[in-house]
Design goal:
- The chain is mainly α and 453 residues long.
- It has 15 helices and no strands.
Length: 453
């Protein structure tokens, strides 16, 4: 292990840089794939939900394998770098190819094309995300440094969300050909930010020698950490709520928010499009809130700050439900900004909590299995991200949602009402469940751990 020391600003902020590229992929898989399949490739909503679930479920299967291999890798650059360096180009290539669907194919072939390259992209994502998450537990054991690292990470992640969620749809316009061109802007961002992180953290503390125990013992060590397992479940529940919103957000922008052309945001809508305008408001709220949540965690404890963020999310979702469908984007954009502030807490606080729980196992056993912790940490999130579009697809199909190949088509009032509550009231109920878990099971599991007061 390299010597433990205080991290430099370049290392603290530089670690977060990679999440700009990761954030781009998060937008693509959670916000754009389902809508692209149903709106431009003619794939029925139920089928789109099932195939999106299948690809992301496969991603869950690959995580434990990459985790164990990453923990056991030996190289002159450390255990994590080779995996991250190889995963970045796979991720970028997969994203470019999945949107360049050849013309003239049936919807089944269109779906198969997207699934194949979506699968390649998710493999690349696993190569990056699992070792990357492990680095947070290796670079420092100082809780305040981890909070600062996570804040920088979320700032860069939000910028990635802004690039992919606002710029990409604006460049794409309302055509499948536009998406094929727009992803050529996203791919270099993914590659350069991930490789840039490796360069900026090349001298940061790391653990070079992995565990000597077998896979079964590693699993026992990780899953025997009860506070960590509860946090994984808790964050998975919250991610399901966010993933439901994300899966249908572009459909909401297409069908539930109108623009009469005389409001204060009409110019932005005309230049960027409705989805990009609303998403930019959301991301700006998330970026603006990062240091707020760092201070809130210090003042109220991480548990208290997370409860506040989730409560804010529930209130905002209720207000959006009352507002939709909306005749003007202005009030919706304001609520999206508040939702972004709440999402900033959802993003930042649990990611600052989980590396502290790695230390509990390392202190007890001496085993450095951060890669396996990272894989389990991502497991709950990836399950939620896989299940959410499936739930949305089945719910919309039951309500009679109509797929198309040329953009938005007329939908029934029942289908639009279903989309509205599926993106607001259902996530709000899931968030409420997560608060119950947080205040009961998690607090009981972490009693006596000062970092989680």
């Amino acid at each position: 292990m390299t010597g433990s020391r205080t991290l430099t600003r370049a290392e603290t902020a530089g670690w977060g840089l990679a999440d700009m590229g990761i954030g781009c992929f998060v937008v693509v898989k959670q916000l754009l794939v389902f809508a692209f399949l149903t709106t431009y490739l003619g794939v029925p909503a139920a089928a789109a939900g099932w195939v999106t679930f299948a690809v992301l479920a496969f991603d869950v299967v690959t995580d434990p394998l990459v985790a164990v291999l990453s923990d056991r890798t030996r190289s002159r650059w450390g255990r994590r770098v080779p995996w991250i360096a190889a995963g970045a180009p796979l991720l970028a290539l997969g994203i470019v190819a999945m949107f360049r669907v050849p013309e003239g194919m049936a919807w089944q072939a269109n779906m198969g094309w997207v699934v194949a390259f979506f699968g390649l992209a998710t493999v690349g994502f696993t190569f990056v995300a699992v070792p990357y998450g492990a680095m947070a537990g290796e670079m420092t054991r100082n809780a305040q440094e981890r909070s600062s690292m996570t804040a920088w990470r979320m700032v860069f992640a939000s910028l990635g969300l802004l690039v992919a969620g606002a710029v990409l749809p604006a460049l794409a316009g309302d055509s499948r050909e536009g998406y094929a061109r727009a992803v050529l802007v996203i791919a270099p961002v993914i590659l350069l930010t991930i490789w840039g992180m490796l360069w900026l953290t090349r001298r940061a503390p790391r653990i070079d020698v992995g565990p000597s125990t077998g896979a079964a013992e590693i699993a026992r060590l990780v899953l025997g950490n009860r506070p960590f397992v509860v946090l994984v479940s808790l964050y998975g529940i919250q991610t399901l709520a966010v993933a439901l919103i994300a899966a249908g957000l572009q459909l909401a922008a297409l069908y539930l928010v109108a623009d009469a052309g005389d409001g204060p945001l009409s110019g932005a809508v005309g230049a960027l499009g409705m989805f990009s305008t609303l998403f930019a408001s959301f991301v700006l709220g998330a970026v603006a809130s990062q240091w707020l949540w760092v201070r809130a965690s210090a003042a109220w404890g991480k548990t208290g700050a997370l409860v506040a963020a989730v409560l804010l999310y529930i209130v905002v979702l209720g207000l959006i439900w009352r507002l939709l469908p909306a005749a003007s984007p202005g009030p919706v954009a304001a609520l999206f900004f508040l939702a972004g502030i709440a999402n900033g807490g959802y993003q930042q606080i649990p990611w600052a909590m989980y590396p502290d729980l790695m230390d509990v196992t390392r202190n007890r056993s001496g085993a450095a299995v951060e890669g396996s912790f990272s894989a389990v940490w991502l497991f709950g999130q990836k399950v939620a991200n896989a299940v959410a579009p499936l739930i949305l697809g089945l719910v919309l199909a039951r309500a009679g949602w109509q797929e198309s190949t040329g953009g938005p088509v007329e939908q029934t009032p029942e289908a639009l009402a279903t989309l509205t509550w599926a993106l607001t009231l259902l996530p709000a109920a899931i968030f409420a469940l997560s608060i119950l878990v947080l205040l009961t099971l998690y607090r009981a599991a972490t009693r006596g751990l000062a970092a989680h007061a």
